[in-house]
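Now for one specimen:
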Amino acid sequence: MELRQLRYFVSVVEHGSMGKAALELGVVTSALSQQISRLESELSTRLLQRTSGGTVPTDAGIAFWRQAQLALRHVDDAAHAARQARLSGHVSVGLAPSTASMLGLPFMKAMRERYPDVRLRMVESLSGYLAPMLGARQIDLAILFHDAPAQRWSAMPLLDERLFLIGAPGLAGMPQGKQVRIAKLGELPLILPSSSHGLRALLDTAFRRTNHQPNINAELDGLALLMDAVRAGLGATIQPGAPLARPENESLVSVRIADKEATRPNLIVSVSDDELSPAGLAARVVLADVAREIVRAGRWPGATLREPTLHKT
């Protein structure tokens, strides 16, 4: 039995509707229903029943609801007590530029609010540099962009980002429509990160699979300068949706890359849990919470959440 299942069940009872509870919890109705079914299977009894007026608890469900409410209050009290203990220490977190543009400031604000005594060090660098820094213990955790980190780290799948072709209005060769395949980019001039960038490795793989020879006009590793060049009409770029959320890029045209390979996985990767300090453990939770909140609010273009499971590699 999981705390998540208790919260889901209590929410359904309070709303009297699977749909309303799912909306409040920020999950799809099918996932909510699945978790309730698992809970009922574990308890070997029916907790909810559907009626013409909505979803109501059975007699067993009412008894379970009362105890579930009590259990959740105890958990919330325990969490509050832990926060009141004023966790201290320090933690170093690495983010790639595009990720930092979405998460950096909200994460810093959330850490200050929840753990004001934790000293936070933020490192913004290319993803290809963050992994070696993690391996050398120069940072405690980072968001990386590959599904199978090579070292013995703790990895938490967070979200997937669709990639977009982004260019200035009127750029010659910029495709029309809502999506385009890589093989159809033709001679469109591209401004891309260099080979040291994780995104470039993903794109090079996609180019090879489609036998497309891209017209790379320039290589720029700084996201701010790269987007400056795109706004100036020097070429288009292929990026996740994060830069599109920046006010200065509102005038740009974006077209979703339709190829299956044009998806970038995001994982929160840290040193092993045995090595991660309490401040690091807390920062990992806050980072995931902030990212999920932004995605659920629809403020992260092209991002979809993954199930929050933690595994070691």
